[in-house]
Amino acid sequence: MTLAIEMKGMTRYFASTGVLANDHVDFSVETGEVHALVGENGAGKTTLMNILYGLIKPDAGEIFIDSQKVRIGHPDDAIKHGIGMVHQHFKLVPSFTVAQNILLGMEPNKMGFLNQQKENELVDELAKKYNLPVDPAARIVDLPVGMQQRVEILKVLERNAKILVLDEPTAVLTPQEVSELITVIRNLSKLGYTIIFITHKLIEVMTVADRVSVMRGGEMVGTKKVSETSIPELAKMMVGREVLLRVNKKKIERGEPVLEVKDISVADVNGLAAISHVSFNVHKGEIVAIAGVSGNGQTELVEAISGMNELDGGQILFRGKSINEASVGDRRDMGMAHIPEDRMVVGLNLQTTLDENLIVSRYNHSEFSRYGFLLMKTINEFAAKVVKAFSISAAHPGEGISMLSGGNLQKVVVGRELSGDPSFVIANQPTRGLDVGSIEFVHKTLIEERDKGAGVLLVSVELDEVMALADRILVLYRGRIQGELKAATATEEEVGILMAGGTTEDLKQYQKDSKQDARQEATS
Amino acid sequence: MKSKQLRKLLDSILVPVLAILSGLVVMGILIVILKKPLFESYAILFSKGFGCEAYGNCIFITALERATPLILTGLSAVVAFRSGMFSIGQEGQYLLGAAIAAYLGYAIHLPPILHPLVLMLAAMLVGAGYGWLPGILKVKLGVNELLATIMLNSIAALIIEYLVQFPMRGDRSTTAHSPVIDESAQLMSFLPGSKWGVGFVIAVLAVIVVYIYLWRTKAGYEQRMAGQSKRFALFGGIRSDSAAIRAMIISGALAGLAGAIEVMGVHRRIMTGFSVGLGFDGLTSAILGQTHPIGVFIVAILFSGLKLGAQLGLQLKLEIPRELGGTIIGFIILFVAAGKLYEENIARVRDWFARRQGSKLKGESR
Amino acid sequence: MEGFFSVFTVELLNSGIRLATPILLAALGGALCNQAGVLNLALESKMLLGAFVGILAAFYLGNSYGGLLVAMVAGGLLGLLFAFLYHKYKVDLVILAIAFNLIIVELTVFVMRAMFGNVGSWSDPSIVRIPDVEIPLIKDIPFLGPILSGYNVIVYISWLVTIVMFIVLYKMRGGRHLRAVGENKSAAETVGINAVLLQTLALVISGALAGLGGAFLSIGHLKLFTRNMSNGRGWIAIAAAMFGVNHPVGVFLASLFFGFADAFSVRIQNVTDLPPNLVKLLPNVATLLVLVVIALRGKVALSMARRRFRSQLHAEETAAATEK
Fold this sequence. Notes:
The complex is a heterotrimer.
Chain A: E1 3-14, E2 19-30, E3 34-38, H1 45-52, E4 60-65, E5 68-70, H2 75-80, E6 83-86, H3 98-102, E7 109-110, E8 113-114, H4 116-130, H5 145-158, E9 163-167, H6 175-190, E10 194-199, H7 202-208, E11 211-216, E12 219-225, H8 231-239, E13 257-267, E14 273-283, E15 287-291, H9 298-306, E16 313-318, E17 321-322, H10 328-333, E18 336-339, H11 343-347, H12 354-358, E19 369-370, E20 373-374, H13 376-389, H14 406-418, E21 424-428, H15 436-451, E22 455-459, H16 463-469, E23 472-477, E24 480-486, H17 492-499, H18 504-523
Parallel strand pairs in A: 3-10, 3-11, 6-9, 9-10, 15-22, 15-23, 18-21, 21-22
Antiparallel strand pairs in A: 1-2, 1-4, 4-5, 7-8, 11-12, 13-14, 13-16, 16-17, 19-20, 23-24
Helix pairs in contact in A: 14-15
Chain B: H1 2-33, H2 38-50, E1 52-54, E2 57-58, H3 59-81, H4 90-107, H5 114-141, H6 145-165, H7 198-216, H8 218-228, H9 230-236, H10 240-267, H11 278-288, H12 293-318, H13 323-337, H14 339-365
Antiparallel strand pairs in B: 1-2
Helix pairs in contact in B: 1-13, 2-3, 2-12, 3-7, 3-10, 3-11, 3-12, 4-5, 4-6, 4-10, 4-11, 5-6, 5-10, 7-8, 7-10, 7-12, 8-9, 8-10, 11-12, 12-13
Chain C: H1 2-5, H2 10-35, H3 43-61, H4 64-89, H5 93-116, E1 121-122, E2 132-133, H6 144-148, E3 151-152, H7 153-171, H8 173-183, H9 185-190, H10 195-221, E4 225-226, H11 233-243, H12 248-271, H13 276-279, H14 281-323
Antiparallel strand pairs in C: 1-4, 2-3
Helix pairs in contact in C: 2-7, 2-10, 2-11, 2-12, 3-4, 3-5, 3-10, 3-11, 4-10, 7-8, 7-12, 8-10, 11-12, 11-14, 12-14
């Protein structure tokens, strides 16, 4: 087997954050294989691939392509060596057509004049050649995400790439789109293309990859043949210890409903339904999880409940009272806490001090201000208290927070939101981008809140997290509640069916089938 | 802890200080091009801008007098910027504030003390209204506040010209001006022959009040959070729209007050050509003063001295056009904007020192 | 009342088109920068520089066309400096514009006084105003002839630039690349398009156009230079670019609107006895109103979409209710 890529001793240190993102990483990929590169957030996968693609310059290390030593200082070099990258955030021009995007930078032209007709024909041909149908004249903004990704893949193929790097390609796709993508990858692999597939979802690794390399904390932990490894083994390599799949959770009686969402609808900027006719309750002492692929209305739902966006229809009751007209501040005063999905821009103000970040939801209360003046001393003491209670290392009252790590920043958010004894907590992707220790901390804290009698609405795209924390699971699909499951009895497959847009009928069918399977197994 | 704070302070003034020095270098280049004596120019600039000729006859006092409206318009810009509104409407608010003060100064007759108070209040109200307009347009409709305030500035300048030429014209002398305001409305000065007086004290008080407002009150907290991150403010329950409008009203009131003080303390009336860009200079002192009240205070005095030195020193003694002063100020702002230039080099120097230190330590450990 | 209506004449159209020209040139430059994703707020200073350098060069070269050329070069160089500061030192473009505004206003007067003594404005009898040109054939078309013909070369250049810019932006490769850079810089860069080069080019061209617009003021329209001669036209040009949604044709129409507002205020001063200072407000008030219209355009689209959604929702509900 020849090696398509060999990277030796790749090292890269980021002085601004003090992170050694790649520490003498060796990585090799055989020609024609599908090679998965896995690791947690911050393990160094993306850095390694960005080095390969010429977006980041390494401090040390050598790269060989087809056994030839090469220098890659710029994406142009990578393209020249036949490397193509499909980025996690697509590099597409939204108002341009599919053809204009695919041919960008290499348009056929006469003296600089363009020929739209010819461009469309070229793209049609390309699409036929790889059996990836697209409409060349459609504008990118009008296309679903899966289709946009297809455009990206065609763009890379048109540039004669032989080695395709796919960075977290499934993160934004629905399960159906994921299975389509897997078919595409298999086809390309058969045609002789080499594919590097970055992900942290191990199930996908097992379905699509030939070999898998695992990174952790900037180092390469090892490379395995998929046929000779298992999900638990890979998980252990990724995390560095046995993974707790279930969090310890005691059984408690749920109380009266704290949040009642009644038939609400919310429009997006184009006047289309982002949330339509959604109803559910959250009771005291329970964690209700909203599962679903991202982009199915989670953001809009959370903004509607927290008061950051208006409702277009329906009603929300909080502790029995309608809060349709209540402002964000009113809702917070009533005991609503909110851990937002974007802690850097929404949840925190990185330009100001820890103290001022900690009082944003309660600066109005008499404990922190009087006669319009802020009580500086009390606020400072409060900050010290929160730092201690939530063991936020490296944070100091009165000082800035911009240098804190992601985990500590999230602790600041959690500390602020939970130190007011809320009766209801919205936690939107509360562990996104965190290391294992911080994830455990957040999970533990949310369960403590529930045990104290608060209602918790957990919105998460991580199925593991949903399964581990929730008492009840609601699946959001295209702005609607696709179905509800009891966490104690639900399986990941069942949630997956709903996430993919399957109906409760499909679910019943599945449950019947699996019961039959079990019975058959039992009888045989 | 103490040394940390000192270091923070030093870090924050490093770029402005280097920018000022760079501006002075540019000035040197221009002077050399004009074939004027270089060192004498610097000496004259500083002695005429900041020096004292004899006891009690200090030009520095004049610099303080000239700085008074600048401090207030600078504070006005600080309050607006710190709410996320890039308003440069200080000039227009200043002019309209001056106009109403000049009018009420001769049109109504009140006892001392009360008369100036009424004038200042009226000017602040008018300025506040002229700040509120672009504020509400921005918040309710999304009208670009930078362009809107530029247009409002031009409109105010034309209104002033109209007022002094027609309804408020005092007599038929060649340059149009309004009648002199009542003695009761004039602000007291501290020294005979100087116009440095009560106005300056008001400006200093304003520096303190604005500082307290921004960093010690709920309203100030709200507008700063809204200015730094709209999403964060919304998430936390801060009404950033009303905070921004409030900031624009306060900003306008401060600029209007500057106009009133300039009329009551210095000119005693308005005349054609009253607008000489004081509002715009306030804006630049806010930028150079790191949008901090104390920074504005220092920079406003510095700018006034520079302009004075250019006018009384360079122009009168060396026949160097006084526009040199404004040019240098422009360059200083440019250098502040290009602060990264210094930061990069400072970082390089620091790294070099750190490396030397490091290698020394290594050497010792061996 | 009769006096009021006597304002509308062919001369008004002529002077509207003339007064629109500097705004149009600068606004086209601004639109080009917006399309390339760099905010060019410094049109005002580039115009003023063009006005000053243009008349100075016309004087020393003894040739006004040479003056135009030098004004364009000066504006272009200022654009280049901008691009350098922006790309190399990540300078805040708004503050940069304010700084340059101040520098150019003061520096032009400084240089003028250093060279010609303590004067408020400067001219020289030897300077020739750019002459008006009648276009053969077109000038004889009834009614349209006098409107389309009889201007100096800068006016025709501004029309030509409008057309060329349209073709380059929407029909040519370089223009498409420029628009791609403006909309998604990293997308353009990953396919090997040199975004820095294109943005620099946009800033340089925009500077040259604004410089030409400025020269129109000092040697095309009048033949003198005064302090702050551009007098806010650069800022109006920014509004014109926004009003014309950065499309050359839209920008052309928007600039004409501002030109007419300007011409109208000049004419009205001649035929009525309204105070000139108040009439001069007209272009500024017009700009303010246009800014409101620009803002409303975005706002209305958004709220309309939402209102449509709500009425649909309501219709569904009533339908469901009647079914029951």
